Amino acid sequence: MRPYRFGPLLLLAACGDPSHGPATASAGITASASDGASTSDWDTGEPTPTTSAGSVTASTETTTSATTADETTGTTGTSEPASGTSATDTSGDTGASDATTAVATTGTSDGTSSTSTGDGTTGEPCPIGQDGCPCGQDDLCGPGLECDAGLCGPPAPPECGDGVVEGSEQCDDGNKIPGDGCEDDCTPTPAADPCGFASDGVWLEIDYTGAFTSTNPDWTYSPTPGWGEAEWAPQGESWPEVWDIWQNVQVTQDQIGKVAIVDGNGALQIMFGIGGLTYDYATVCVQGRSYSVGSSVTFTVQNQLNDCGGVGMMANDWSIHSTGVDLGTCIVDNNEFQGLRIFASGGSGALSLTRLRFTLHGAVY
Predict the structure, then answer these.
(1) For residues 31 and 24, is the Cβ–Cβ distance under 8 A?
(2) Which of 2, 97, 112, 303 is the most exposed place for a label (fewest CB within 10 A)?
(3) For residue range 225-251, what is the model confidence (pLDDT) as tens digits?
(4) Rounded CA gap, 113 and 134, in Å?
């Protein structure tokens, strides 16, 4: 063993060569100079690539060429943009591309969906079937929501007259003509009254089957919003009323039940008003029979305000008959004090009155 063979060299390596300035080194490792120049490897004598000042790199036996801007680095698998520009902007600016980022919605196994953008970011999850979120299987949505174009949301208000039954509509025949089976509020046209007249518009009915006096029948009004008992009242009153003109009409038991006997000595008159209302035509449906067992009865219904009215006839067999009278426009529009009178005018001269319905068709108010 020769302990002093490498003594001068080791001393030189440790202390450095005064003629070249201080330097540090170890076997196989070089330190980069502050000016970026490379030092030589002691084993090969070839220059070694260096990093920026203060960094240390492992030496290699060969040098590598600089990577150009359009060569892949192997680190990220993408091209590094040239200095001062972004990968999507060739204008020289450093900002991102002006193009709109595409957004995609993806369903997940836990019943939610998420939104993702072109830059790989993911938004908040959107529960399937909720407002503004994707519809579920078979286009199902949460309570009160409907599926439209793949998304759940509140249902659109129905439009009466468009031919599509939706929302609270009971019918929709594609028009807004009343009395044709489906009314202009998309409810079915009420069934015809016993005389065959349509039950549209507004109506009132008096019924003697449970009455005890001629002036106190049972009253029924059409289920028309905004026009009821108070609206039918004549001026100065709170409800319509029946007058027994000569105080001779009796309520009694007939072969068809309890009736009001209207004969040649008496007449009944319904006092009413229709302030603020117009209509198309008026009808009266009378139910009863001729009180006589031998012949039919003829009766008259007219408006005492203008003596305008019509005539009907009732048979005398022991059953309830229904006879309609078309009054046309005998009722005066927008008048608050009128009287609809009924009295026997021929035949047996005695009418057993069970019910009377008075209807203003096509009423507008």
Answers:
(1) yes
(2) 2
(3) 899 999 999 999 999 999 999 999 999
(4) 8
CB within 8 A of 15, min separation 6: which ones? none
* Nearest partner of 326 among 220, 198, 239, judged by Cα: 198
pTM across the whole model: 0.54
Q: Which domains are delineated in the chain? A: 133-189 (no CATH), 202-361 (2.60.120.260)
| Ramachandran category for residue 73: left, alpha or beta (phi over 0 → left; psi -120 to 50 → alpha) | alpha
Report the distance separating Cα 347 and Cα 299, nearest Å. Answer: 9
DSSP secondary structure letters along 111-173? SEEEEEETTS-B---EETTSTTSB--GGG---TT-EEETTEEEPPPPP-TTSS---TT-S---
Q: Are 284 and 291 in contact (CB under 8 A)?
A: no
Q: How is residue 349 annotated by DSSP?
A: S
Q: Which of 9-13, 141-145, 157-161, 285-289 has the highest mean pLDDT?
A: 285-289
Q: Half-sphere exposure of 156 toward its Cβ, with a 13 Å CA cutoff?
A: 7
| Helix-then-strand count for the chain, H and E | 2, 20
Contact criterion met (CB below 8 Å) for 145 and 152: yes
Residue type for position 52: S
Token look-up 């192997």 returns 74
In this structure, the number of other CB atoms found within 10 A of the CB of residue 213 comes to 13
Tens digits of residue pLDDT in 45-97: 444 444 433 333 333 333 333 333 344 334 344 444 444 444 344 444 444 33
Tell me the residue type at 71. E
Average pLDDT of the segment spanning 271-299: 96
Residues 189/213, Cβ–Cβ less than 8 Å: no
252 forms beta bridges with 259
Among 357, 259, 230, 261, residue whose Cα is nearest residue 301: 357
Q: Tell me which residue has tokens 């039950």.
A: 199
Q: Please give the mean pLDDT across all residues of the chain.
A: 76
